[in-house]
Design brief:
Class I SAM-dependent methyltransferase, methyltransferase, globular, 254 residues, Rossmann fold, methyltransferase activity, single chain
């Protein structure tokens, strides 16, 4: 789970083509179906706060949780510029704590893929269940086995005057673990380039595994859909999972 440290320096630059506004509208449309249009909402793996800011602008009172202090530092800078009242917490989502409950919990940009153990997925869902209002909604996305297979073992690189990167990707189809080594060269103020190296792992969970984890956690599995809201298939690259709160488990038993 120790990722996005040096990457935080250039994350927004490298994610410029991500359709954040489209994702924000998709999620808010889904939440509206359950009568959730405002109130407290938690984003797990909020990163640099781009989506957190968008959801706050939609009328939600946002809380952002992320394990990377560096990513949160970028998020706080955005908050200072926008003047929004977003609460950011530097916590591991496998152990996060809130002071009360929220109407919805969301987790996007394949954050949940970083849970490479099934038991961790169950535990996160248990925590979410405990911090949701009665009948609250948990919505998160996952890159799929189909997506990781399409990337396979490839290398990617890009460069401009300020940042260069090399991305070596590898997907173990048997274990369904996607790993990538990221090498960054970032221009400093004196025009020299500093090198940073990171290693990331993500797991491709099947929809059946996710359903089992959600039900084992005590939540109700509602649906697995694609970006158009249709039922996900074996060819879906990114699946959106929707679950509902169902009762509580004493926190000390988690």
């Amino acid at each position: 789970m120790n990722a996005y440290h040096a990457f935080a320096l250039v994350y927004d630059r490298m994610m410029e083509e991500i359709p954040y506004e489209e994702w924000c509208n998709f999620v808010t449309d889904q939440l509206k179906k359950f009568g959730i249009e405002d109130g407290l909402m938690l984003e797990l793996g909020c990163g640099t706060g781009t989506l957190t800011e968008m959801f706050d602008a939609k009328g939600f009172d946002m809380i952002g949780v992320d394990n990377s202090e560096e990513m949160l530092a970028e998020a706080v800078e955005k908050r200072e510029q926008s003047g929004r009242s977003i609460l950011y917490l530097n916590q591991d989502m496998r152990e996060f704590e809130l002071y009360g409950t929220v109407r919805a919990v969301i987790s996007l940009c394949d954050t949940m893929n970083y849970l490479t153990e099934y038991d961790d997925l169950v535990n996160v869902c248990r925590l979410v269940n405990n911090y949701l209002d009665p009948n609250g909604i948990f919505l998160f996305d996952l890159k799929t086995d189909h997506y990781f297979k399409s990337i396979g073992c490839q290398s990617f690189c890009d460069a401009d005057e300020e940042v260069s990167f090399i991305w070596d990707n590898d997907y173990d189809e048997e274990k369904r673990i996607n790993s990538y080594a990221l090498t960054l060269f970032v221009q400093e103020e004196d025009n020299r380039y500093e090198r940073f190296d990171e290693y990331h792992e993500q797991r491709a969970f099947s929809i059946d595994e996710v359903r089992c984890a959600i039900e084992e956690s005590g939540m109700i599995f509602l649906s697995a859909i694609d970006k158009n809201g249709a039922p996900a298939t074996k060819d879906t690259d990114r699946v959106y999972i929707i679950a509902r709160e169902k009762g509580k488990t004493p926190l000390q038993n988690l």
